[in-house]
Structure formats: structure tokens, C-alpha cells
Amino acid sequence: MRTFIVAPILSLMLAAPALAAGHAADPPAPAAAPAACPSTLQYSFDRLQDEKPQSLCQYTGKVLLVVNTASFCGFTRQYQGLEALYGRYRDRGLVVLGFPSNDFAQEKGSNQEIAAFCENTFGVKFPMFAKSHVAGRQASDFYQSLAAQANGQQPAWNFHKYLLGRDGRVVGSYPSKVEPDDPRLIAEIERLLAR
Questions:
Q1: Is residue 73 annotated as a catalytic residue, yes or no?
Q2: What pLDDT score was predicted for residue 35?
Q3: Do residues 129 and 99 touch, judged by C-beta distance below 8 A?
Q4: What percent of the chain has pLDDT over 70?
Q5: What b/e string do you get for 130-161 counting C-beta neighbours within 10 Å, with b at 16 or more?
Q6: CA distances, 68 to each of 92, 96, 159, 192, 194 (Å)
Q7: Which position among 37, 57, 73, 118 bears the catalytic label?
Q8: pLDDT for res 31
Q9: Do 76 and 184 meet the contact criterion of CB atoms below 8 Å apart?
């Protein structure tokens, strides 16, 4: 009878190291380090709708189209094209960022009024921020850094567009007359998204 008891115990003892080795948890793979926030995006702005601070670092690794906007401008209809562009490419990594500004005397409303206008008139869903300065000496540090990377090109009017690659660097600066569906702009966005 002892042989019947010892044999199964001996089998388990011999198998234990192999079982332990098979069940030992492999050390966890190191998590991919989050991409460092580029200096261009190391700014915070209040969100347009509720004026809660938002870090632009949340858009690290995205292709960004940064646009200064206004509600009472001949180019205001570009909101529709910007929203269509955002809807078309957001799943591939494009984010349109809107920065309302009264620097050209065409954005007189409060942040809440601007938000209501954008949503009710154009169905804007892309991120927008509280009214700020985008041109001249009073331009925000963010806009000054964009202009510096664009060879000094500051917005000369509403709906100027800066295109940033996934690394946060400005790769294009487009005046107001360049529509959101301009083939040159689309081609550059697609090139950046493919990287």
C-alpha cells in the first residue's frame, strides 16, 4: 500500500518544479513611456464651454490644426469646413483646435455666447478655448511660439491656420483664404497622418 501512496506523491514532487516554472508569472513588460509633451504644447487654456483649464499636452502625438476664430467675420462659414475636416480625420489622429479672438474686432461675445453660437450654428464639436489674443505683442505665449516656428507669420486675420505634426512642430502656416477643404492642406494633413 505504501508504494501506491509514495508513487503519486513522488510524481507530484518531481512535477512541482516544472509546474512552478510554467506558472511563474513572467515579469511584466515595461509600459511604453508616454511621449514627452513638446514645448510647443506646454500651455494651458480655459475650455470655451465651461472655462475649465485644459492642458494642450493632452494632444501630444496628434496632428493639430490650430485656428483663430471669430463669429462675425466673412470667413466664419469656415467653421463648417473645419468641423467636417475634424469629423473626417479625427479617428486617424487629427485634432482641430479653435481659439476665438477679438484681435480683429469681430468676436465681441462672451465665452458662453461664442460656444452657443458655434454649437447651434455650425455643430462644432472640435475643442475650442476661451477667447484670447493671437496677434501682436499681446498674443498668448502659445501663439507667439507658433508664429516663431512659422518664420514670424502671425495671423493677419481670423481663421489663420497653423498645422503641427505629431512632434508638435509647425509644418505649415495658412492664411484665412485657405479653406479647410483646400487640396494642398488636405494633402499635407494626410501626409502627416500617415507617419
A1: yes
A2: 74
A3: yes
A4: 83
A5: bbbbbbeeebbebbbbbbebbeebbbebbbbb
A6: 23, 11, 5, 21, 26
A7: 73
A8: 52
A9: no
